[in-house]
């Protein structure tokens, strides 16, 4: 192990890690720690005792890392360590770090010892676990292994805990061999590992260097009160809407029309609903049940008694209560997680209330952390994906010569039908009109909304209030510090979406009834989803194989496709399909 090369490697990158983990150190007992020391780091090591193998862990002298050997671990070439993160009273929050080297020719007995140690270690229920090393399991990602093999047992263990692997690219490269994933980075919390980088190998090694960040803590959201409207007297609200009619059916202009409707709808809502202040923390934070809190109080009292008397009886009392509290806390956490799973199944969007927000973003000039800076970076990212309008719009030939679609009738029955199909779990827009209220008062709102929609359509106007929305960044995949990995989701007015739905239905019916859509087009069509295209494609591929024809399949994915749609070309294509008049104004 070339210590000088290791120092130069990190000095060159001006990166000072908290820990450096090495496998295949080839160290022996006659090599002392002083000979391989790195300034500013302490070392823990586990040597093979013969040529080859071994692991070593360098850690910053500012960290209080200690080795674990209780109970004694039987597997060789492994390190089991604990890093205390916080000590508050009787509660010790620690990160458990494990470094493993498993030789490619490891014997079945050695594999059994390693799996036994892993099972025994993970059964303790630590909340922060980080396992990494060279496992020499190149086919682990295949998920199909012979029964009883080490890879099958390790994969079953990862599924049981569960453990998340963050190494998704090959880590070993040799000139004549296929690149493979031999090094693994496993932990029990998927979001704790960020920014995994695959750096060039150290010295003459054929393994890449893995650099990553481990998130020990997540910042809590301040207990800011928010408004929620969950208590509504719908009978009273419907009666108020029936009594409070729009006084002027002939709107002077679009803004007046919207103000009149907002007043018509908002006043009864303020009377018939109860607004409750609810802190954000009460939505997301896990809380013990009252029964558990009572037992925790008993445990604390028993600890005080033991601290005062220091007798075997008081210790036994405290130990019994402590173990009982641990059991109750685990039961509460499991019940809380089951409750969350049921809520997620009923409303998938509820998941985003529990996902962590954006804390840091990386830019070419550095890292931003404040909410204002993060918002500015995301805004610049979203603006950058739009392309300017082309100087030349291609001539699109007319493909429909039948009756054109020029007008849409917004009838009360049509509006009511769309209101009744609203999803009540949809987020509200900036106007604050909740879909649950709109759906619950569909019959009363059908006529005034039909008047509003007809007025806007006849004047070819889109309200300024409908063009304003709240943009929510949703993480797609990859590093959470990369702004390009966040998809913008705009929360617009629900009422505007109702009008859009009526227009979209009319356009879709025109395209479908006149056979203007290609039969192979799937997605955003009734009875033609992503699943149906997969079934059709699979059927064609199977038929080609049966007929002894070769299959050549090309997958295309357009980056930021929706954001890059040019509206002028889109309008020209709609015009060629017979969609004319005020629909295109």
UniProtKB/TrEMBL annotation:
In terms of InterPro entries, this protein maps to: DNA/RNA_pol_sf, Endo/exonu/phosph_ase_sf, Endo/exonuclease/phosphatase, RT_dom
Endonuclease/exonuclease/phosphatase domain segment(s)? 97-208
Q: Mind telling me which CDD domains this protein's record contains?
A: RT_nLTR_like
What residues does the Reverse transcriptase domain cover? 474-581
Q: Which Pfam families is this protein grouped with? A: Exo_endo_phos_2 (PF14529), RVT_1 (PF00078)
Identify the domain of life: Eukaryota
Q: Which GO terms describe its cellular component?
A: extracellular matrix
Q: What one GO molecular function would you report for this record?
A: catalytic activity
A single Gene Ontology biological process assigned to it is:
cell adhesion involved in heart morphogenesis
Cross-referenced PANTHER family: REVERSE TRANSCRIPTASE DOMAIN-CONTAINING PROTEIN (PTHR33395:SF22), TRANSCRIPTASE, PUTATIVE-RELATED-RELATED (PTHR33395)
Q: What is this protein called?
A: Reverse transcriptase domain-containing protein
According to the entry, what is the taxonomic lineage of the organism? Answer: Eukaryota, Metazoa, Spiralia, Lophotrochozoa, Platyhelminthes
